[in-house]
Write a structure and sequence with these properties.
Elements: E1 4-6, H1 8-13, E2 15-16, E3 21-22, H2 33-36, E4 49-50, H3 59-67, H4 70-79
Antiparallel strand pairs: 1-4, 2-3
Length: 83
């Protein structure tokens, strides 16, 4: 099981919003000189965000996360499902 949620390339422009990253759309052109000859030489401090380097939730934690959403609780109530 492996999933990449934020690639190294996306990390370069990602903005840390606390509990999530905002990733602006990629508006780069095909003029690669500005990246290879004139680009920023500092390495991006973020690294890829994937299944191997983050906390994985167990089934009970996923249930609790879903139940924290009012929409989910409302839908369960409408269906008559106890939670």
């Amino acid at each position: 099981m492996y999933e990449t949620l934020l690639t190294n390339e996306e990390c370069a422009g990602a903005i840390d919003m606390g509990q999530f990253y905002r990733v602006p759309c990629d508006k780069r052109g095909l003029n690669y000189d500005k990246f290879f000859k004139h680009g920023d030489i500092k390495r991006n401090p973020l690294t890829e965000f994937n299944s191997s380097n983050t906390e994985l939730l167990d089934v009970e934690q996923v249930k609790q996360k879903l139940l924290s959403l009012q929409y989910i609780r409302d839908e369960l109530d409408k269906a008559g499902i106890a939670y």
